[in-house]
Amino acid sequence: MPSNLLAIVFALASALTIAWGTVVRHRIAEEAPADGSFKGSPLWNAISRPRWWAGTGTALLGYGLQIIALGFGTLLVVQPILVLSLMFTLPLAARYDGRRMYNSEIFWAGLLTIAVATLVLLGRPLQGSPQPPVEKWLPAILIGAVVLITVERIAQHQSNRNKALLLGLVTGALFGYVAVLSKAFVDIFVHSGFLAIFTAWESYALILGATLGTIVQQYSFNAGALKNSLPAMTIAEPIVAFTLGYLVLGEKFQVDTIIGWAFMALALITMIISTVVLSRKGV
């Protein structure tokens, strides 16, 4: 039975564990510059280190908590809360670096929290279709594949800073797709049973998307400072997930006045600006 309160609790737990995993994996990427060979590649340097597996294990635990959250609530509730992983990343990164957080970081973190709370509490999202037909998925998948492959190719010819930014966008968008596929996966399990997930194409698309997202994320971490890639990742994921949640799953916010939508738009803009500012200040 849907329960947005339980969804919020598990989404917050997910955001915290994802934050710790992000800090660990980025520090490993910084310590392991590529030398051009396979064994010197970002992926090999990462997976050859036990700490990377610890960080990845934590990220997987965070993803599991996200799946549970999606089982209780809508995608439009869970995704904004996951943006708070950035707020958790900042103090963890500061502690890792042996420094204190600045007052400006605390200010923007507060604004981010207010923006997320506004989207969730004012929006009061409604559940969508548990199993949308494949015809609704195809345009979103095809368009997304063309756009993301193009951006990834462009990124390979950019400076390290811009490469990290563009790969961060690709990573965030991939995880936006993963979030929507995760919601579909959960709905299939709830409405059709355990065996149905093995015959559903969404299950295999979910595995592929999560694998690609993890690989591209590691390359984006290696390309430059976390402040170059993290804002793009953190913002692209909910925006893509919001869009697909509306267009594919049919989830909707319960806002029916101009003033209400104005506050929602203001909250979304505040969330984006706060995320970018925090990412560049804190890591």
Automatic annotation (TrEMBL):
Keyword Transmembrane assigned: yes
UniProt keyword list: Membrane, Transmembrane, Transmembrane helix
Coiled-coil annotated residue ranges, if any: none
Superkingdom, natural source: Bacteria
TM ranges: 67-94, 106-125, 137-155, 164-186, 192-216, 228-246, 258-278
Keyword Membrane assigned: yes
NCBIfam families cross-referenced by the UniProt entry: DMT_1
Name of the protein in question: Multidrug DMT transporter permease
Organism: Corynebacterium alimapuense
